[in-house]
Amino acid sequence: MGNFHLIEHPLVQHKLTLMRKKEASTNSFRRLLNELSMLMAYEVTRDMPMQEVEIETPLEKMTAKVIDGKKLVFVSILRAGGGILDGMLTVVPGARVGHIGLYRDPRTLTAVEYYFKMPQNMQDRDVIVVDPMLATGNSAIAAVERIKELNPRSIKFVCLLTCPEGIAALQGAHPDVPIYTAAVDRQLNDHGYILPGLGDAGDRIFGTK
Ligand code: URA
After folding, report:
1. Domains identified in the chain, total number
2. Catalytically annotated residue among 26, 104, 124, 146
3. Structural domain containing residue 59
């Protein structure tokens, strides 16, 4: 699987296991997702461009490296993407944020767009699209297609959990977009849910079921 990054760090795997448990409360599910997102942000920003700036320590002047957080845009796929967004912004507070609203037509499982709001000057920015579950891939494919219309410098996709069908679909449509995930589960069921998975991520983040 080219352009694919499995984040196997023990802290990531441990927290994901706790989140999968059906008895995990809304509170602990959300807190764990927030912590996990910070750890995934660390991996996905590993190759971010840096620049040198002049600073002064208490002892002398030096040149030191900084990232330009403003060049980075986190694009959250509503509504579950919000669960990853908070943790990512904790570690890159200068990042800009875009939102894309897509819902799954329950009959066809295709993505229907109802909201799209991005920062200005996307052609100068690196985009990280976030959605906890890469399942059928329909939402991810539609989101990346819309973002590509704005010609950003680069696009990456981060999810918590995916399956072979989701990876094949996204890589088939957008082979240039690297996928970062904490796990690849067995399969999709007939309703487009990942097995064994963790259930409906949006419902578990927001306590709506
Ligand atoms: N979306 C979810 O929230 N869970 C799945 O298993 C698949 C898609």
Report:
1. 1
2. 104
3. 4-206
Instruction: Determine if ligand 1 sits within 6 Å of the CB of residue 134.
Output: no
Which of the listed residues 139, 200, 205, 206 should we mutate to test ligand 1's pocket, taking the one with most ligand atoms within 8 A of CB?
Answer: 200
Residue nearest to atom 2 of ligand 1 (CA): 200
Q: What is the pLDDT of residues 51-76, one digit of tens each?
A: 999 999 999 999 999 987 779 999 99
CATH of residue 177:
3.40.50.2020
Gap between the Cα atoms of 17 and 141, Å rounded = 27
pTM above 0.85, yes or no: yes
Determine which residue's CA is closest to atom 4 belonging to ligand 1: 200
Q: Please check the confidence at residue 165 and state whether its pLDDT lies above 70.
A: yes
